[in-house]
């Protein structure tokens, strides 16, 4: 309890405001209100409805006043957290309702496909059994005795059906990873092939066996065995089309995030565009660093500040086009000095980051040293009793909270780390006897998207934009875009070139040499 009170007192110490800081925050909020509304009007048609995230450790508005703060800003000022302003229009409501209808349609399509596949699979497994049992039920007395041959065929059918059942379960009964916009062509073709195949067998069975009441029971059983054998071959064909065909790399795709330009390269096989997009998204959540829109606000604010210093006076009644050309010309004349501002801003930011990183490392090392000392004292007082990791994390967290706050605000990562998540990570590190460096790895280096909670993700619903049909295969030069609400991934496909490899034979005797000594030697 005392550790929890210390934690709360640490955070309550940052809630004192001066009149100047309040005014600065109001001005900053009013200044950034209109750009948000403009960006909202240009948003994509795909809208993702998300639940509000949990309260972060630091407010999102803290990065706006970061440029004007010195190293002692934590003594008198803080940032307002937990409040936000949103606006919604009738057009947004219409888009949201359309997305809800689309999501309902996707669910119906998915369950319909699963139902059709399940019914067809049940029909496939019951058909050979029905072929064998129907003559025994309808005209058992007229059947010719089969004996040992039929019993061996029964065992063969039973084991083949068991193998087919296991293979079907391993290949088809998987939890779906995504909802694709179109059907999987090869899987649909296999379902159609199986349906036509079973229907033709039933048609032949009804005409040649049921109508004539064939008495050759051994031939009927062999007919059922041939059906099972053919189903096994279709299963092998499914493995080749669905699994083996895409293993050989044939294309190299370059994935570029539109906001910050981060890119990755991947090798893909023969895939359709929609399945290639699914592979790209799976690798995106693992390989790309988490999308942080706060890192992009610095360049936008710098450009806005640069243009805010320009004033154009309409003296002789020029039109708007003339005013815009005058502003562009004035901005070009001031461009020569803007790179100096950028250089000094980046140098000052790097200096602050290094300074606060050093303070954070020292604070965490001291905290871990303190927890080891507490564990040693607990063992001396009561042998066999260990301190609870959660209590230990709450005990040492106040000593590092301030340094961690400042570092996360400086690096603009505060929206991804709540106090509860930091305490859970700290208790996890204490439980597994991890070092301070292992604890800091999550905060010093931005990790991939999967490292953070789902509430912190800025990309959950994606829209595939392609000039070609999404069911068509990949080709050289194809470009498609994966859009979400805040950014997009541009994918450029290039075919791996044909490599011609030749061989050159080296004669082993060419490596031999002869050492000739002069005759006038002293030896």
Please, could you describe this protein's structure?
There is one protein chain. The protein is mainly α and 523 residues long. Among the domains are: 98-246, no CATH class; 251-292 and 458-495. Helix content is 56%, strand content 6%. The protein has 14 helices and 5 strands. It has helices spanning 2-12, 19-31, 33-41, 90-138, 148-172, 185-210, 217-244, 273-287, 297-308, 320-333, 335-381, 389-410, 419-431, 436-444; strands at residues 251-257, 263-268, 463-466, 479-483, 488-495. The protein has a 5-stranded antiparallel beta sheet with strand order 2-1-5-4-3, covered by helices on one side. Helix 11 (335-381) runs antiparallel to helix 14 (436-444) and helix 12 (389-410) packs across helix 13 (419-431). The radius of gyration is 35 Å and the shape is extended. Residues 1-98 have low confidence and may be disordered.
Round the mean pLDDT to the nearest integer and report it: 74
The largest pleated sheet is described as: 5 strands, antiparallel
| Estimated structural class | mainly alpha
Net shape:
extended
Q: N-to-C SSE series?
A: HHHHHHHEEHHHHHHHEEE
Number of strands: 5
Strand line-up in the sheet with most strands: 2-1-5-4-3
Distance between the termini: 94 Å
Q: What radius of gyration results from the CA coordinates?
A: 35 Å
Percent of residues in beta strands: 5-15%
| Tally of separate helices | 14
Helix percent reads 55-70%
The unreliable regions are 1-98
Family: Belongs to the Vang family.
Region (Disordered): 1-86
Subcellular location: Cell membrane
Organism: Grallaria varia
């Amino acid at each position: 309890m005392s550790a929890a009170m210390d934690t709360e007192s640490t955070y309550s110490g940052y809630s004192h405001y001066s009149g100047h800081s309040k005014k600065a925050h109001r001005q900053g909020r009013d200044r950034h209100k209109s750009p948000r509304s403009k960006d909202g009007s240009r948003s994509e048609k795909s809208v993702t409805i998300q639940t509000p995230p949990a309260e972060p450790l630091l407010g999102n508005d803290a990065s706006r006043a970061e440029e004007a703060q010195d190293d002692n800003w934590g003594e008198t000022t803080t940032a307002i957290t937990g409040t936000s302003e949103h606006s919604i229009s009738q057009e947004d409501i219409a888009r949201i309702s359309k997305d809800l209808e689309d999501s309902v349609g996707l669910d119906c399509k998915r369950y319909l496909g699963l139902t059709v596949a399940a019914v067809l699979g049940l029909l496939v497994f019951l058909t050979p059994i029905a072929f064998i049992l129907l003559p025994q039920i309808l005209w058992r007395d007229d059947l010719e005795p089969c004996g040992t041959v039929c019993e061996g065929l029964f065992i063969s059918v039973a084991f083949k059906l068991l193998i087919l059942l296991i293979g079907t379960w391993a290949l088809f009964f998987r939890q779906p990873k995504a909802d694709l916009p179109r059907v999987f062509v090869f899987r649909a073709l296999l379902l159609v092939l199986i349906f036509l195949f079973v229907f033709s067998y039933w048609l032949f069975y009804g005409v040649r066996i049921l109508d004539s009441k064939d008495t050759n029971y051994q031939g009927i059983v062999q007919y059922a065995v041939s059906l099972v054998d053919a189903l096994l071959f279709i299963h092998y064909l499914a493995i080749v089309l669905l699994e083996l065909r895409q293993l050989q790399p044939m294309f190299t795709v370059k994935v570029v995030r539109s906001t910050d330009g981060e890119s990755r390269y991947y090798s893909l096989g023969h895939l359709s565009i929609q399945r290639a997009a699914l592979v790209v998204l799976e690798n995106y959540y693992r390989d790309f660093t988490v999308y942080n829109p706060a890192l992009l606000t610095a360049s936008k604010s710098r450009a806005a500040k640069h243009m805010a210093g320009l004033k154009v006076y309409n003296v002789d009644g020029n039109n708007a086009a003339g005013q815009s050309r005058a502003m562009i010309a004035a901005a070009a004349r001031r461009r020569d000095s803007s790179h100096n501002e950028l250089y000094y801003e980046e140098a000052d930011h790097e200096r602050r980051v290094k300074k606060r990183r050093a303070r954070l490392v020292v604070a965490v090392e001291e905290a871990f040293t303190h927890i080891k000392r507490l564990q040693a004292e607990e063992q001396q007082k009561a042998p066999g009793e260990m301190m609870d990791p959660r209590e230990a994390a709450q005990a040492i967290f106040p000593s590092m909270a301030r340094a961690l706050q400042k570092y996360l605000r400086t690096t603009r990562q505060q929206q991804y780390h709540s106090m509860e998540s930091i305490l859970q990570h700290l208790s996890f590190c204490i439980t597994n006897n991890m070092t301070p460096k292992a604890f800091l790895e999550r905060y010093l280096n931005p990790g991939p998207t999967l490292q953070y909670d789902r509430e912190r993700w800025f990309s959950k619903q994606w829209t595939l934009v392609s000039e070609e049909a999404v069911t068509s295969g990949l080709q050289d030069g194809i470009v498609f875009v994966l859009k979400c609400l805040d950014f997009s991934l541009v994918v450029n496909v290039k075919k791996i070139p044909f490599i011609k490899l030749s061989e050159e034979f080296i004669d082993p005797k060419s490596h031999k040499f002869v050492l000739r000594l002069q005759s006038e030697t002293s030896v």
